[in-house]
Amino acid sequence: MNATPRKNLGQLLVVSSLIFGMFFGSGNLIFPVHLGQMAGSNWFLAALGFAISGSLFPLLAILAVVVTKSDGLLDFARPLGRHFAAIFLILVHLTIGPFFATPRTAATAYQMAVASFIPKHFSTLGMLLFTGLFFAVTYLAATHQNSLLKIVGKYLNAGFLTLLAIVFLVAFIKPMGNLSQAPTATYQANATIGGLLEGYNTLDAVALLALSVTLIHAIRGLGYRGRALTKLTAKAGLISISLEVLIYFGLVMLGALSMNQFKLSANGGIALSQIVGHYFSSVGTLLLGALVTLGVLTTAIGLVCSFAQDFHKLFPKVSYRAWLRTTTILSFLVANAGLDTIISWSLPILMLMYPLALALILLSLTVSQRPYAGTVYKVTIAFTILPAILDMLANTPATISGLAPIQRLLTLYHTAIPFASLGLGWLVPTLIGFTIGIIWGRLRWVGQRGTLPESNR
Question: Which residues are CB-contacts of 184 (< 8 A; sequence separation ≥ 6)?
């Protein structure tokens, strides 16, 4: 058995950097900037809400995978039964993998780094060449798992943070104005809730359930096992999440300050481009493009690795490298549909997956070690899945959500269920199902065995 390596600050920081680089991508840059523009003078409260959903939930996802000792999403969802676990694994990885999130990384990098330099009549060819190169680099990095810490933790992530620090330094030395701009209607009275919901859109809690598996494999490669692995992951996760919170607050503040120079943008990508262009002129686009490309490349590497690892476990007759090639090629093809198309396709599915992921995180951190865990898992998910489906329907294109029967159903849902009109209708049913599941599970166990084990009372 390998001896546990000496715990030193250097290793802790490298693992922290890996965690950060695995999931901090384009969405984590553009959502908070746009939030700052909308929140105006209430930027701090909005940033606080964003930090809770954009940072706390991903940290809990990492801890949930570690606590359950899961070696993939199949293990993580296994208390619900193998069939549901397999379906959950497939849906999560298709969502954050080749159908949506992974191709979105390349499409975002192209739009923000290259598109403005390519004549419109060459945009299709430019997109094809850029995404081909992007995913070739992603594949090469992913085939060297033993070098993952070195590639992501030391090089790509260091470049990303350096570029981001330059943007912050210049922007805060020479601010665009003050922070007294009036917030939009949504952020006048409930800025923290608005920020919380905006952070929900990053979907990092779903992604981290898959990416954490790659993370744990990398840490095991350093020789850590058992409690040592858990402690190192928790400490590194706390450091990386703390850094992310600081970046979020900086980006939200940057967006709020930009309202002294610009009008409210359609999205954070436009806002960030305007801000960087304001400070760096002709080199601004190049700087922003490099920053975004480095950020999303680290995310893409983690996504394709976790997809290949989990699908190889589910379908072991197909090799890891075959799955890696499959997800990389599919991601390349979907990326060429363009960023706007990818986002429009993904939203309904993501609204379905996020409640299920958060419910599983709750279950993993609270009852996964209990003898009646299976009952609690099944009851909780049963209460979660219907509102999640309704949230999905509410975000489908108007050709579906606008149908009269669906409109009546959604109106009833938004009226009868707390927070449903905000996209959080799953919250109360999930907590009710969780409570009922615990009571029922304990009663069933006592009825079958006569008493609960002392450690589970």
Answer: 38, 39, 40, 264
In the prediction, which pLDDT does 1 show? 44
The contacts of residue 456 (CB under 8 Å, 6+ apart) are 369, 370, 371
DSSP class of 263: P
Q: How confident is the model at residue 44 (pLDDT cuts 50, 70, 90)?
A: very high
DSSP readout, 162-215?
A: HHHHHHHHHHHHS-SS-S-PPPPTHHHH-HHHHHHHHHHTT-HHHHHHHHHHHH
pTM (two decimals): 0.83
Which among 42, 339, 330, 336 is positioned nearest to 198, based on CA atoms?
42
Phi and psi angles of residue 69, each rounded to the nearest 5 degrees, phi first: 55, 35
Q: What is the DSSP string of 226-272?
A: HHHHHHHHHHHHHHHHHHHHHHHHHHHHHHHHHTTTSPPPSSHHHHH
Distances (CA, A) of 165 to 243, 283, 291: 12, 16, 10
User: What separation in angstroms does the CA of 177 have from each of 39, 172, 254?
Assistant: 15, 10, 10
Q: Is 10 left (phi over 0), alpha (psi -120 to 50) or beta?
A: alpha
Q: How far apart are CA 88 and CA 353, in angstroms?
A: 9
The tokens describing 12, both together, are: 């802790």
For tokens 């690892």, name the residue: 309
Predicted pLDDT at 219: 79
Name the token pair of 313.
């476990």
Are the CB atoms for 161 and 298 separated by under 8 Å?
no
